[in-house]
């Protein structure tokens, strides 16, 4: 993650996360952009069907490539693929369905 966080980097991250936010909301998840001075913006994503299923997503450059990141610092996918990122996040936050016995 870049250090220090410049206003330009924070603005670009916010733009990528806002695009992802819309896709996640279209998939039925709650997503809220979190901002704080001198920190990268983050996206708090919650499954409204199971509020304990939540995640904080970041967007940040690595080696001149912008990526979406899980909270455990693992890349999700390039920011140029927000639909793929949204699908992966939705999958991770999906509530388990009872199996038919």
- State the oligomer: single chain
Number of helices: 2
Under the CATH scheme, which architecture would be assigned?
A: 2-Layer Sandwich
| Biggest beta sheet summary | 5 strands, antiparallel
CATH class: Alpha Beta
Count structural domains: 1
Overall form: elongated
> How far apart, in Å, are the first and last alpha carbons?
47 Å
Rg from Cα = 14 Å
**Average pLDDT number:** 92
Q: What percentage of amino acids are in beta strands?
A: 25-35%
> Which runs of at least 5 residues are low in confidence (pLDDT < 50)?
none
DSSP summary, beta strand count: 5
Structural class: alpha+beta
- Strands of the widest sheet, in order across it, are 1-2-3-4-5
Layout of strands and helices, then pairs:
Layout: H1 7-26, E1 30-34, E2 42-46, E3 54-62, E4 65-69, E5 75-78, H2 82-92
Antiparallel strand pairs: 1-2, 2-3, 3-4, 4-5
Helix pairs in contact: 1-2
């Amino acid at each position: 993650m870049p250090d220090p966080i410049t206003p330009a980097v924070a603005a670009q991250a916010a733009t990528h996360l806002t695009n992802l936010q819309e896709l996640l909301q279209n998939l039925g998840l709650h997503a809220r952009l979190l901002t704080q001075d001198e920190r990268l913006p983050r996206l708090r994503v919650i499954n409204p069907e199971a509020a304990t299923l939540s995640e904080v997503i970041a967007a940040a450059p690595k080696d001149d490539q912008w990526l979406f990141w899980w909270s455990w610092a693992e890349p999700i996918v390039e920011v140029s693929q927000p639909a793929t990122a949204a699908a992966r996040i939705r999958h991770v936050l999906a509530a388990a369905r009872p199996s038919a016995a």
